[in-house]
Amino acid sequence: MSAQDYHIQDELEMCSKDNAPVYPKKSVIRNCALKIDLSKVPKNKFEKVTKSGRTYLKLDYRLLIRVEGAQMVFSFDCGGKEYGRIEADFGT
Description:
single chain; about 90 residues; mainly beta; five-stranded antiparallel beta sheet; two-stranded antiparallel ribbon; 7 strands; about 0% helix; globular
């Protein structure tokens, strides 16, 4: 696999209701796009999974959000170790 294969994109969604819905509904909207660089995570943290005849790499990680001043700083950890910051795009 190339280094580019370890760059993924996901979306952070939000809901302004007091009780978040179990499944996304009309009240759930996109907050931002997250660009995550997983290339620094040791390769032994990835699990090979085969589904429908295709093999994928699975990684369990946590999205971390810290407030620094007036900014939200996104990062992720895997197995309790923080591996890097996440780029957030709030554009429409």
